[in-house]
Protein: Ribonuclease J
Amino acid sequence: MNKEKVRVIPLGGLGEIGKNITAIEYGDEIIVVDCGISFPDEEMYGVDLVIPDINYLIDKKENIKGLFLTHGHEDHIGATPYILQQLNMPVYGTKLTLGLVENKLREHNMLSDCVLVPVDAGEDVILDKIRVEFIRVTHSIADSCALAIHTPLGIILHTGDFKIDYTPIDGLVMDLNRIGELGEEGVLLLLADSTNVERSGHSISEKTIGETLLRIFSNAKGRVIVATFASNIHRMQQIVNASLKYNRKISFSGRSMENISKVAMDLGYLHIPEESILDIDDTSKYSDENITIITTGSQGEPMAGLSRIAYGSHRKITINSNDLFIISASPIPGNDKMISKVINQLFRKGVDVIYEDLEEVHVSGHAYQEELKLVHTLAKPKYFMPVHGEYRHLKHHSDLAIRLGMYQKDVFTLETGQVLEVSNEGVDTSKRVRTGGIYVDGIGVGDVGNIVLRDRRYLAKDGMVTIVIAIDRETYSIVAGPDIITRGFVYAREAEELINDIKEISREEVEACLNNNVVEWHILKTSVKKSVEQLLYDRTKRRPIIFPIIMDV
Amino acid sequence: MNKEKVRVIPLGGLGEIGKNITAIEYGDEIIVVDCGISFPDEEMYGVDLVIPDINYLIDKKENIKGLFLTHGHEDHIGATPYILQQLNMPVYGTKLTLGLVENKLREHNMLSDCVLVPVDAGEDVILDKIRVEFIRVTHSIADSCALAIHTPLGIILHTGDFKIDYTPIDGLVMDLNRIGELGEEGVLLLLADSTNVERSGHSISEKTIGETLLRIFSNAKGRVIVATFASNIHRMQQIVNASLKYNRKISFSGRSMENISKVAMDLGYLHIPEESILDIDDTSKYSDENITIITTGSQGEPMAGLSRIAYGSHRKITINSNDLFIISASPIPGNDKMISKVINQLFRKGVDVIYEDLEEVHVSGHAYQEELKLVHTLAKPKYFMPVHGEYRHLKHHSDLAIRLGMYQKDVFTLETGQVLEVSNEGVDTSKRVRTGGIYVDGIGVGDVGNIVLRDRRYLAKDGMVTIVIAIDRETYSIVAGPDIITRGFVYAREAEELINDIKEISREEVEACLNNNVVEWHILKTSVKKSVEQLLYDRTKRRPIIFPIIMDV
Structure:
């Protein structure tokens, strides 16, 4: 009778989109699955990205055997440099995944300190009591894997991100047979991708995009400029194939596009005849109908390639009236307005733009309901825990498992920070660990917290008003000021009367204090702050942040 | 030979969503069609709403004959109080539209100063040389009309917002016959709604929602709580009908829901037996399965009903585990993340939630491609100008007209501020008028401009650092400070070293100036600002706003 326990600890990615990272423990052996970032939501002003809080792992440093990466998307590998800085460990993944990680580590000047261990789909990594098997899946990035984590208590099958594409671009189909075999052996716990659980039916094969692209390319008169996700190498390959068919050379634009296409070509995931690759500076040497440009900016990001081209601020690419633009991507929730702005701007410039609302130029990389049902049915898990998704997705994925015949008591809808502990006696979900998001802003990691963000929100909403007064405590008198500085509140030149009233009320408040021999800073400040706040709310119904500064000279 | 001209001047709503307002002029007679607001985009921090700039109209005050409203949606009537304050004129519209305007004018305490003239669909308003005919259309609010503006030069047909619903809830179908007659008479210019031009096929009838609702209600065990747009009275009626069928009483929650349902009932657009209306305070007197609550907040707005219920901050409604929530609305672009947050929170509370991704609980109120083709074909206009939409929509609507056989030279894709001038000699689109958005923030109208917004954006991104130094110009010395106040930049307690470095570098800069007998404010300020900016960028890669304050004591 095995008395050990398996603990699954989602440190990110459950009840949220992105920042996927899960610790899996057997006894005193710990592996970490994925290590992603998430993008700041609209309330996190100024934050560049969010990484997981891994204090839980740091406390158990000596037990950690390695980081196992399922695939090379940012929400699964993006935090690797930040996390390895705090906690170095060997990193296991397929060649392409590690190629992308290598790029990141190089940018952070830490490549030489890290150990990257390439693993092929179908191979095992044998640790002490745990064995980790990489199983090929299909997804919107090549070389994606599920992980079967073999423990003495049973097998934990973690799907990673996946869809079931029966006609993948590289011909490498998902290893459903192996999942079937594992199901026969007995899967203790299934952790499966929930992103598209609300979509009925079956996702569409990446290959259909190729057909659409061929049709679009066949009618293009000038350059074709395609914006897509830099990591979608299969999409890139299909754009390349359509270009070659119509005698176009291919040029890559945008830092991530150039980096990732290079890694993918070097490692043999993207195939382009050398003579068909064109430096962006050389495109003017060819006629327009022989050029395809693949660029970043498919989410409408203001600083990325597509936006810069649209607004005429790209250093190398100027719009021609016969250009055809294709946006081969879906808006990530929250980005639709940004993308729409860029589309509008392109149409204003008189060029044609093709996007998802008009043509099938994008498909999702995540399994729909029927695909999820297949994997559940093959794996026949004893327990199930949905991963990767907001709570609504996790909830619906649990419902799906129950509709497939699982008992409610064997299905666990948990969120980031909740521990799933499996033993021979059953499952315990009562424990929690400390988790959360660490904000990266500029080169600062973690120095912007909730208080700073709260202040940024207040400042954003109604701006600020600073009141400076110099007093002499000996004589109980104001010696300079009040001076008023305001930003983001009203346009001061047009609000002279209001500014004067702020001065007057501040002076009155301070004088009233001084006349009563009150010189304590906090009292002076508080009385100025309160009166000015009230004045401004009455007059404008706004609440700028008030900073009273009392100087003692 | 008529030498007069017809001028169509879009002051809002073309190349943008919302803020619909168009001036139509014949000779020295001007009418205004609609007068809407738009909602601030994500960059307009703190702005509550945006109204059109009507300076062009104010300059021609004496020629203006009236404001003609097509229907009662905010993007068509929302700015009425603000505009009438600047420029009083009679307001024409159908009963429901005017009922909603009345509410607004009452809130602004200006009802007694305004003239509201009810017009029924099918009726004409005869001005001097212009005659305005109201023509019934179907849309997501009752009592919507198109306008046929009869001028001596010809008929201008403005569709307003519309869809073609052959089975509307109130039985009042769109007057396609009249549009056909006008087409026979000869339409000089068609202005038509472009919102859904990118959608192929035909929109779905509002009536289908009723069937879905009946099925959902038939299975509900506890209260049914439906969030929808307050203005969608047909939707309200269908929710009421399903409730009555299953012996539920109806309670309205949320200010706009209570207001609009009252107006709609008073005017006979919404029919509920009196004994079936329940005050929200009385819901506890009935069992859950006999209660329906219709609430605001279908866009996930944090302060509206649905969010408050989900997060437990509603004063009157507490979640029961057997509640069924229905979100009978689509996310307006940009709102999807907010709605998703509320859905997640409701699921966390253990209740069921039905929304558009799962069931057909919402249909659009705007015409799809086949409906637009019908109206174009009936109206057979000489000229066409698409209205209501971003540039991409206008562009596609122009393309649609050309595919239907119009000449490119007779189709005009213009944006807000561009004038379409039609005479017997042809069309001129070369003129422009001043237009734009005026920001409403709190009770301020127009006192927040682009400079204030730019400052809010900077403050939001990286916060601010204020440096206060008091100097004595006589002795060329610092007498107090530097003191540092920072908000939204770093958490000051954890950045003591950085704060000290700011102090030191500021002191050095000021002392260097003073030692050279330089006391000019702007030089002192600029040198402090520059050095601190550089220091902070080098150390954090952030650019907070720096406010150096030099006090002279």
Summary: Chain B touches chain A through 68 residues (CB under 8 Å).
